[in-house]
């Protein structure tokens, strides 16, 4: 709970109404007010205050870049995005986005909160209503995390990818925990999935709505087996599988890893090439099939053969290891 309080306080400070915001309302060509500090109950309430005081400015979407940290996976939320886009086309952009000045280009901005609204405005050819605030990289991560927590449909694997991106960017785990509002144990579970499952496999599966931590962890453990990655990549390359919804692609991939591998069978012959039987090797056992007479002989000596095996004796000579 402490992490949530800190993150909420950060946003309250960031979006507080300042005199510069009020002054911006009277300006004929408003420019972003680079301010921080203050308080408001929530992001929406803070935005409302800024709207009423003129602290929201219009920004060309062509001048807005995504932040480097990937969170939402594109491609499987088309219906939700289409609905948002249609709403903005009909009613306008009711909730402004949160931007920061680009750290290396003063003529550009980066999105901290409201990535899909920026995308929708860009596709509609509209100016983006925005609040602009200077932010450190860590503050940008926290703002993205707050936006993510407000999305009821953000999936486990999207959260895990965001956690991995935070770590890869060099931010400490404390920042990741605050951004995602999770404890150390849950963060470790997320990172264990992204480390075990190759990024291209995650991308091919997609958002996998409805697939939670337990099944992703099961998948991460299974994909570590020999040949498992190749098996999954081959499956996901199938056009028929690619056409399935994301959660069904995940189910097919997990099922493929759960299928027992066919046991390898080899024929055994004597020195003259006469068949003696077969050996079938499965994942956890070996089955020897031979004629009854030789089988009885082996069975009678199985205990002694096992003793020699455990002692490390030479299987051909029977010689015990020297001390």
Structure description:
The protein is α/β, with parallel strands linked by helices. The chain has three domains: 1-153, Conserved hypothetical protein from pyrococcus furiosus pfu- 392566-001, ParB domain (Alpha-Beta Complex), CATH 3.90.1530; 155-162 and 181-259, no CATH class; 264-311, no CATH class. 51% of the residues lie in helices and 12% in strands. The protein has helices spanning 2-14, 19-24, 43-53, 78-91, 115-124, 137-149, 156-168, 173-180, 184-196, 199-205, 213-222, 228-236, 239-242, 246-258, 292-311; strands spanning 57-59, 64-65, 97-101, 109-113, 128-132, 264-269, 275-281, 286-290. A five-stranded mixed β-sheet has the order 1-5-3-4-2. A hairpin with a 4-residue loop joins strand 7 and strand 8 (286-290). Helix 6 (137-149) runs parallel beside helix 8, helix 9 (184-196) packs across helix 11 (213-222) and helix 12 runs antiparallel to helix 14 (246-258). The longest helix is centred in the C-terminal third of the chain and has 20 residues, at 292-311. This is ParB family chromosome partitioning protein. Residues 57-149 form the ParB-like N-terminal domain. GO terms for molecular function: DNA binding. Belongs to the ParB family.
């Amino acid at each position: 709970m402490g992490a949530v309080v800190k993150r909420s306080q950060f946003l309250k400070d960031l979006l507080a109404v300042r005199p510069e915001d009020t002054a911006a309302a009277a300006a004929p060509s408003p420019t972003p007010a680079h301010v921080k500090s203050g308080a408001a109950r929530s992001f929406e309430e803070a935005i409302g205050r800024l709207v009423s005081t003129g602290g929201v400015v219009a920004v060309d979407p062509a001048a807005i870049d995504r932040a480097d940290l990937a969170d939402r996976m594109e491609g499987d939320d088309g219906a939700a995005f289409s609905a948002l886009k249609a709403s903005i086309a009909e009613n306008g952009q009711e909730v402004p986005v949160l931007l920061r000045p680009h750290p290396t280009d003063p003529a550009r901005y980066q999105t901290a909160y409201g990535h899909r609204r920026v995308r929708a405005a860009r596709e509609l050819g509209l100016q983006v209503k925005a609040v602009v605030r200077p932010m450190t990289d860590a503050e940008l991560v926290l703002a993205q995390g707050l936006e993510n927590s407000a999305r009821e449909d953000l999936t486990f694997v999207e959260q895990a990818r965001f956690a991995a991106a935070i770590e890869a960017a060099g931010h400490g785990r404390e920042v990741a925990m605050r951004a995602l509002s999770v404890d150390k144990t849950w963060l470790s579970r997320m990172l264990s999935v992204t480390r075990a499952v190759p990024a291209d496999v995650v991308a091919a599966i997609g958002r996998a709505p409805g697939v939670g931590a337990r099944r992703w962890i099961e998948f991460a453990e299974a994909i570590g087996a020999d040949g498992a990655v190749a098996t999954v990549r081959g499956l996901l390359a199938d056009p028929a599988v690619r056409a399935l919804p994301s959660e069904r692609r995940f189910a097919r991939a997990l099922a493929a890893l759960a299928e027992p591998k066919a046991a390898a069978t080899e024929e055994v012959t004597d020195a003259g090439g006469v068949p003696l039987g077969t050996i079938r090797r499965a994942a956890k056992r070996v089955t020897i099939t031979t004629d009854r007479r030789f089988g009885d002989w082996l069975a009678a000596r199985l205990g002694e053969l096992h003793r020699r095996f455990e002692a490390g004796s030479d299987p051909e000579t029977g010689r015990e290891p020297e001390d």
